[in-house]
């Protein structure tokens, strides 16, 4: 079945209505990346695995689109294993950027970018002689995020560097994939669980260091400057309130945005068990369940306040949601009028 689909794709691509060469090259590179991703099954991966068969069908269909629409279609192939961002991507909230910067013999291309009121995600293609397929096993970046006025509003840097700015994002994750000779893809997903991210219109992210974790030489850090202008999609938001009262629970805030739902919840007991906290889930009318990746927790002897960001999108357009906390009746959330 797989071979026949690939043969149909080749047939479609060889028709007279052929894609422009630049777009054809982009498709070839993207398809090869997808095939490599489908072979790698990691337990905690947040990069959505896309089968070669599905990718092939989508590519064959895209032959009839204009150049701009073809590039827009490419975005969906790099979906994160995150239902909130996936749906946001379907509505054009994931930006196809393709900006490249070179410094210290390392070229970084910002391929895709997403930001809403509580999360930011980037896909970077990194080219360097330090990348070897059998040697590189991990990679991350150090960066500073600047607002439109040029002020630092967030930073992820080592302890040897000065930290300035208020700080926004409280947790994050890096995912390495598509490791080839001298090139690899790095995905970054960071979130703010305590406060909304200020507008990133006109913002800039400056990568200061790339850290390569290698088997032979250990960690190799390359300092440089790779600056990228950010132009996020318009941030949409909707506030929810609790429709019912549940003894022991108090909803302090519930804000839904493009690909994230931020919940602040007060529980009338001191909870030390982090597994208990992370078992808190969001439920929809059709029994879908969503879990947060991390939590910001404030404890006293009498209560626990947890702040969570669920991977849920405003584009789902559901009027009611349920918040489930172990040992308590479900809290019903409805749109605030």
Report on the structure:
- There is one protein chain.
- The protein has 337 residues and is an alpha+beta fold.
- α1 runs parallel beside α3, α2 runs antiparallel to α3 and α2 packs parallel to α4.
- The N terminus is likely disordered.
Give the structural class. alpha+beta
| Tally of strands | 18
Radius of gyration based on Cα positions: 22 Å
Task: Quickly count the helices.
Answer: 6
Short description:
The chain is of the alpha+beta class and 337 residues long. It is built from six helices and 18 strands.
Record keyword descriptors for this entry.
about 325 residues, alpha+beta, 9-stranded antiparallel sheet, 5-stranded antiparallel sheet, elongated, disordered N terminus
Topology:
Layout: H1 2-13, H2 21-39, H3 52-62, H4 67-77, H5 83-90, E1 95-103, E2 106-115, E3 119-127, E4 136-146, E5 152-156, E6 171-180, E7 183-191, E8 204-214, E9 218-229, E10 237-242, E11 249-257, E12 261-267, H6 274-278, E13 281-283, E14 289-291, E15 295-299, E16 304-310, E17 320-324, E18 331-335
Antiparallel strand pairs: 1-2, 2-3, 3-7, 4-5, 4-8, 6-7, 8-9, 10-11, 10-18, 11-12, 12-16, 13-14, 13-17, 15-16, 17-18
Helix pairs in contact: 1-3, 2-3, 2-4
